[in-house]
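As a warm-up, study this chain.
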Amino acid sequence: MKKRKEMIYKYDAFFDPNGEGYTVTVPKLPGLVTEGRNLNEARKMAKDAIRCHLEALLKNEERISSRSSAIRKEKVRVGI
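Now compare it with the structure written out below.
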């Protein structure tokens, strides 16, 4: 088996409290959703889910992109 050079990819992950833990989504990887009972477990599950997703893309010889998408995340200040 041909050994690949290890690449490091960075993605924004969103951790949404769901009453029983956290639901994790990664906007740059549509369809990727995982959960954890607490924040620490949710982080571990997110890493594993991202790794599996990327490995599947590589296996299918699809392109992996970690570039920023057109979606912007900004803080908005509103005074009332």
